[in-house]
Write a structure and sequence with these properties.
The structure holds two protein chains of two kinds. In chain A, about 0% of the residues lie in helices and about 50% in strands. By secondary structure, chain A is an all-beta fold. In chain A, the strands form three sheets. In chain A, strands 2, 5, 6, 10, 11 and 12 form a six-stranded mixed beta sheet that branches. In chain A, strands 3-9-8-7 form a four-stranded antiparallel beta sheet, with no helix packed on it. Chain B is mainly beta. Helix content of chain B is about 0%, strand content about 55%. Chain B has no helices and eleven strands. Chain B is globular, with a radius of gyration of 13 Å. The N and C termini of chain B lie far apart (about 30 Å). The chains are: A mainly beta, B mainly beta. The interface between A and B is medium-sized, with 28 and 32 residues.
């Protein structure tokens, strides 16, 4: 069965520190890849997405992620975090080429706490 | 504001009650989804609707009954729930074509007592 694994459940960083959140997926076919963020009390919103092409994708708020096909990974990075990045981060995959792009398999999420 | 609105935001219900969750999207999408977000578990897909037709039921117990009267509205009817059904229920929508993303509502926080 397909699955998504996020290695870090809870990350605590100081402002200006660099961030990398790991995400690995298990699926034999081609996938679409997503990172969603959920700020406290708010809805899930898309940070960035990968469908095809350049494996290094840039998203909102200075986030980027790199798709490494050989490692089945899609790690999220940010060079310098801010206190406002405190949130829960979810990695998700969907089947590439499917019209049901909302049919997502999620990782368990990583809670990021940024200390001012 | 995502264009996906869920009501109510919070709901407390007894195990013998019947209640409904509502989702409305203003994005012109034609696929809608229900997800369940429980503590310490990944978001789980429950149901998928395309053009008002249910195309997926992810082994959800029958005490959860979805309804999609049109492409803009999605309901989740609840009856005889269990305390372990307490969770955040998220609605999402997407365009019915390749390489798009899903948009999520803010969710309904359900507590079953």
């Amino acid at each position: 069965a397909q699955s998504v694994s996020q290695h870090n459940h809870h990350v605590i960083l100081s402002e200006a520190a660099s961030l990398e959140l790991g995400c690995n997926y298990s699926y034999g076919g081609t996938v679409n890849l997503f990172w969603y963020v959920q700020y406290p009390g708010q809805h899930l919103q898309l940070l960035l997405k990968y469908f095809s092409g350049d494996p290094l994708v840039k998203g909102i708020k200075g986030f980027e992620a790199e798709f490494i096909k050989s490692k089945f990974s899609f790690n999220l990075r940010k060079p310098s975090v801010q206190w406002s990045d405190t949130a829960e981060y979810f990695c998700a995959v969907s089947l590439h080429g499917s019209s049901n792009t909302g049919k997502l398999i999620f990782g368990q999420g990583t809670t990021l706490q940024v200390k001012p | 504001e995502t264009g996906v609105t869920q009501t109510p935001r919070h709901l407390v219900m007894g195990m013998t009650n019947k209640k409904s969750l509502k989702c409305e999207q203003h994005l012109g999408h034609n696929a809608m989804y229900w997800y369940k977000q429980s503590a310490k578990k990944p978001l789980e897909l429950m149901f998928v609707y395309n053009f008002k037709e249910q195309t997926e039921n992810n082994s959800v117990p029958s005490r959860f009954s979805p309804e999609c009267p049109n492409s803009s509205h999605l309901f989740l009817h609840l009856h005889t729930l269990q305390p372990e059904d307490s969770a955040l229920y998220l609605c999402a929508s997407s365009q019915d074509r390749e390489n798009t993303e899903a948009f999520f509502g803010q969710g309904t926080r359900l507590t079953v007592v």
